[in-house]
Amino acid sequence: MATLAEVAHALVSDRRGILAADESIGTMSARLEGVGVEPTDENRRAYRELIVTTPDLVDSVSGIILADDTLRQRLSNGRTFPEALADIGILAGIKVDTGAKPLAGASEEKVTEGLDGLRERVAEYVRLGATFAKWRAVLTIGGGRPSERSVRANAHALARYAGLCQEGGLVPIVEPEVLMDGAHSIAQCQQVTRAVLRSLFDELALMKVDLDGIILKPNMVVAGKDCPEQPAVDEVAQTTVDTLRETVPPSVPGIAFLSGGQSPELATRHLGAMQNCGELPWELTYSFGRALVGPALETWWGDEGNWRAAQRALSVRAVANAAAR
Ligand code: 13P
């Protein structure tokens, strides 16, 4: 059986990245409705089948993060999703948090929940075929946010999640997302991202999490989407890499970015530009959701006749991101 470090390395090596297909039932339903598809269990299942049966996906995707419902569903050929992924050489991951909820006393800020019963759920997910996990914390910029209390509460939860995953045999993807919502500058995003990552690595050390058996999934350092001054691609790349160099220990094997609402093309260009920012101690790759699958979803429209075209749309993004690496 592979060690945690071997799984973590496999997820970020060979110029491949991770595909996030772990939208909650609520989020996935909204995305389906957005393209005119009725948000039924079957349509959510069919859409995930479209993704995992995309030809040659293994050349650019090392792992796919699934949600609890998908992990228990089957493809048309009767295979479970983890079995189908194992058949084609892609690792199965599982989102284990139960969502971001209002933080007590600071209701405009959120803390991610899901620690209760997590040890038992991890054991079950391992039995179902998962090899890695994900937990996402969200932090907002603006109006004095994020507060230190939300930064620390989220870092604490992420570190306890990571410890439980490692104890149970899953590689934790540790995702502290500083959101793009708002009009803040890239400098403000850098300042907040730096503070969030410092707090996170303090907590990971406290909880004795093995850094060579995790993947960090951060936001890129960008300006808020309503900021009138949008930085150039090279500035985003350099500022992101500088921030990570200051905060992420070299023993972390890989950093896999979320796309966070950037257009698919821009997320890919940022990723590509970061590869030219000098020698780095970790692999830099993608763990995109929307920036990988958005075009496929918009092509599919729930119509069987668009199935192949939608898979081609996913392939185009996957191949472009692998090339950017
Ligand atoms: P996006 O790339 O769409 O931001 O999603 C990544 C993800 O997994 C969020 O948790």
Automatic annotation (TrEMBL):
GO terms for molecular function: fructose-bisphosphate aldolase activity. Its EC number is 4.1.2.13. Pfam families: Glycolytic. It comes from the Bacteria. Keywords: Glycolysis, Lyase. SUPFAM superfamilies: Aldolase. Pathway: Carbohydrate degradation; glycolysis; D-glyceraldehyde 3-phosphate and glycerone phosphate from D-glucose: step 4/4. InterPro entries: Aldolase_TIM (IPR013785), FBA_I (IPR000741). Belongs to the class I fructose-bisphosphate aldolase family. NCBIfam families: FrucBisAld_I (NF033379). PANTHER family: FRUCTOSE-BISPHOSPHATE ALDOLASE (PTHR11627). This is fructose-bisphosphate aldolase.
